[in-house]
Sequence to fold (339 residues):
Amino acid sequence: MTRRLAEVATYAGVSEATVSRVLNGKPGISEATRNAVLTALDVLGYERPSKLRGQRARLVGLVLPELQNPIFPAFAEVVAGALAKRGFTPVLCTRTADGVAEGDYVDMLLDQHVSGIIFSGGNYAQGAAEHGHYHQLRERGLPVVLVNAAVEDLGFARVCVDDGHAVDQAYQHLSSLGHVRIGLVLGPADHAPSNRKLAAFKEVSQQSGEDLVERGIFSMEGGRAAASRLLANGATGLICASDVLALGSIRAARRLGLAVPGDVSVVGFDDSPFMTCTDPPLTTVRQPIEAMGRAAVALLVSQIAGHEVPTDEMFFEPELVVRGSTGAVQADRAAQPVA
Fold:
């Protein structure tokens, strides 16, 4: 019992005496403190006293694909803060390589009686991925919000960045610097946000007749491999579907003896933290994650309160942030493929 009191007190940020008063139903405890203690019990896996079991846990699942890409921890920070202000506690779940899949996390969250779930970068964005757990959530009527493009209309509220406008901004920026052979580095073929970027790229690049497109997994190595093929085909400007892919593309250029931005210009997507600290600082298209995160929480909380919310996509406009990885094209490389 003493160990339980200590663990719950530490997690909730209160004294052991306060935890004891909550568990014993004593008066004089604020609602916020009571919720914090009950949430700590749920998260730590302790059973609530029988007289408190009827009170629903104010937990919200936040399911992310990874934490290595800094855009996801940044998004989690925004969502966690917005949830806390509304009296909810996030339960962070990230898919792992050792067998914990998104569907497994959904089962765990349902066992914890979460009030709702926010997904970012989930299976819903991949056509070949497993989608059964989304249908399960829909059937149960659990409040859900999806962040960024989905492969199909699952009937959930959606908060999205405008991928098409992001590509248009990047393409126009490179064109203004004299680049004609502009390549596109995307994620896998079944990735919905990548496909939206591809559709926009095809539309905006029609005048030049270019169709320099390569795909890879979302990693630095995937970006390096895809960019190497584009550079060998004479691309002088690269638009990448993530900052991580962009960093891999810069590595590819350097391995070919090319300077960035002297020989090759690179534009990322996300504006992840620390992109001002790369060499060179990365020109990128910023996702408005603060506005998107707050909107996702507002949509979820509204559902939890019993209100209907629209399932149409709520689009947010990205912003081109120009830094040191883009520059004017060199005349001798304007139309010459790399040997």
Q: What stands out?
A: Residues 189 and 195 are 7 Å apart (CA to CA). The radius of gyration is 23 Å. Residues 163-287+321-333 form a domain with the Rossmann fold fold (CATH 3.40.50.2300). The chain has a mean pLDDT of 89.
